[in-house]
Amino acid sequence: GRDCGNSGYQLAVLNEQAGYYRNRSRFAQSFAACEQAMAIISAPEFSDPVSAATTMLNVATSLNAGGRVAEALEMYGTVEGIYAASLDAHDPRRAALYNNMAQACMRSGDQHNALEYLHKSLEILKKSREHGSELPTTHSNIALLYLSTGDDETAATHLQAALSGFEALGYDSPHYPAALAAMAQLLHVKKDYSGAVEQYRLALAKTEALFGHNANYALLCRNCARACSMAGLWTEAGELERKADAIENRLNAANAPAPTSTQ
To answer: What is the C-alpha separation between 157 and 173, in angstroms, rounded?
Structure first.
């Protein structure tokens, strides 16, 4: 009895750590927390399948963010099986799973399956009352996919739905900055460079507030710098490029494998 409560508490802390380090692009530390969490749910006395699946979802998301996409997809598949057996058909946790599976598919260049998962997510959320930030997140992910295929009109429709959904939440969802960055990208494509800079600045501010200076923040600096130079804001462009360099150097050092002593 007591053990279960204790392991539940440990699991919550480890899941929190895995996400914290993942969001800050510190993958070695994220993977270390993931391994400890997996050890807890793999123990024979651990008997809560949904809680195990939620941990696996978190671990798979860290694997995907750290570039281990094939492993992530395999683990998501396991989670899908458990969720299908244990959760209501319209449970928003299932939509969150499909959103994450779509991200992994996008990473591996599989746009066809990514779109299928995103539409599955949308179907669930349309019937669910408790969707929080999951619905605008799905619209944002669909918009990103259409942007990557060059269908800017469809992307714009989904982006409007995403941004108004995020703005209505009353708090900043972790997925809000991605939607702002997508809007910036769209404005850049339409040659509205000062509009793009404005959206990038907003995305940068929200990313910094939510996650600090992670890999995504560095990428946003680069994209904003491009829009700045197109808008004639040379000084800001140069500052952003230098900032991106500094962040990437720091993250590369943090994520480098520990030097092995050679005797």
So the answer is: 20
Q: Residue 150: left (phi > 0), alpha (psi -120 to 50), or beta? A: left
User: Helix H segments across the chain?
Assistant: 2-23, 27-42, 49-65, 69-86, 92-107, 111-127, 134-149, 152-169, 176-189, 193-211, 215-230, 234-255
**Two structure tokens written together for 224:** 């904003």
DSSP tag of 258: P
Distance CA 224, CA 159 (A): 19
Distance in angstroms (rounded) separating the CA atoms of residues 71 and 38? 14
Q: Give yes or no for a contact between 25 and 244, defined as CB atoms under 8 angstroms apart.
A: no
Tell me the per-residue pLDDT of 73-102, one tens digit each, with 9 for 90 and over.
999 999 999 999 999 988 989 999 999 999
Q: Is the pTM of this model over 0.85?
A: no
Give the model confidence (pLDDT) of 127-163 as tens digits.
887 668 889 999 999 999 999 889 999 999 999 999 9
The residue with tokens 């480098």 is 256
Question: For tokens 């380090």, what's the residue?
Answer: 21
CA-nearest of 32, 14, 21 to 215 is 21
